[in-house]
Structure prediction request, 131 residues.
Amino acid sequence: MPDTDSSLPYYFPKWMDRAGIRYLNPWMRRIAPALPGFAVVEHAGRKSGKQYETPVAIFSNGRVAAVVLLHGETDWARNVVTAGQATIRYRRGTVTVRNPRIISPRQAGSDVPRLARLGNRIAGVIVFDID
Prediction:
């Protein structure tokens, strides 16, 4: 769900986020790792420690992976930043990513994949170093 106190902009109404979490995400968790440009981020809850899987559109350049945060600073992004790492499942297999950081709009550097930098013109980006 978007956090209205977040410093990052979000572009979707709350009802759309709720519908996505309830109906779209369960389906996407199964097929996202097989689709080009999509992945599942496996992470633990900040407080509960419960394991979660979040489907995302991901951009990678081999050294760095990035996700454009059109839904603002979401719970999954906070969980990953707090943990300092996550596991990403996608077409090439499973990788552990480290050093997650959230970059505010228009702040991404040249190390961020090009398509994620384009998204960063209007939204925040979470960036990971690939092990």
